[in-house]
TrEMBL record:
Pfam families noted in UniProt: YjiS-like
Protein name: DUF1127 domain-containing protein
Residue ranges annotated for the YjiS-like domain, each copy included: 29-59
InterPro entries reported for this sequence: YjiS-like
Length: 70
């Protein structure tokens, strides 16, 4: 009986979905808006948070996200 080795092709990395060039250009501005919005949210007191319909826990959860996360 002759044994042959079967070689498997190396696994290819998963391709990221194609992102339009316009989206890539706008990404830094989006990240900046998120960072500034979260900074402002962190400065709000309980009364202001209540006015916009958020609890302190919800605000804390949003503020704790990094700027690149939606």
């Amino acid at each position: 009986m002759i044994r042959t080795q079967t070689r498997h092709a190396p696994a290819l990395p998963v391709a990221l979905p194609a992102m339009p060039l316009a989206s890539l250009v706008e990404l830094p501005a989006l990240w900046r808006r998120r960072a500034l919005t979260r900074r402002d949210l962190a400065r709000m007191d309980r009364h202001l948070l209540s006015d916009i319909g958020l609890t302190e826990q919800q605000a804390l959860a949003e503020v704790s996200k990094p700027f690149w996360r939606e």
